[in-house]
Design brief:
The protein is 46% helix and 0% strand. The protein is mainly alpha-helical and 198 residues long. The chain folds into three domains: 1-63, no CATH class; 65-129, no CATH class; 139-198, no CATH class. The radius of gyration is 22 Å and the shape is elongated.
Amino acid sequence: MHKNQVYRIMLDEFEETQGSYLDLSPLNKLSAEDLGDSAFMLKLLREFLEIEILDFIKEPAKSDVKFFETYIQEDKGGWDCLKYASNSVRNDKLFFLRLIEKIGYYQCLFYANETVRLDNEVTEAVFNLLSDDLNAIQYCSLSARSRYDLIRRAVNHNGLNLQFASDKLKLDKLIVKEAVSKSPKALEFASDAIQNDI
């Protein structure tokens, strides 16, 4: 079945249900070539606003950095689409740097490969976001997560940020007390020595 026919079927059914239900089964009738067409997949996402469409994505769209970047910019936070991306996208440091520096989406690093997450340029870009969002501490380098002043501010912002502190700072009673005062669950991230301190 031609991709335009599938699109029309989906659109008609979607309009019939007044946008309350989207039947994705017509996508099973498409060729791998159609499901790998970045422009077509982007058209479906724009029309139906349903990320599960990406369950059907194939190459070369799966490795098309521009496709993912466009979708993320348009969706204003749809970085969860990266779970459908290929390893070549997840290894693309420049792609993640653009998302962090231009849009401020450090959360996209959840889907990046470890070499990208640990890269100095990437961790520096995340560090630069800390003044706007202290939850970004989780994606900072170990040296940043070892800074007393930074971790203290981060746990005052959100007690659960204690889990991202260096082991040394998880031993610091003042930091742990401040984290627990913000969120009692933070105690589970304190060092064993503090947890065992009656």
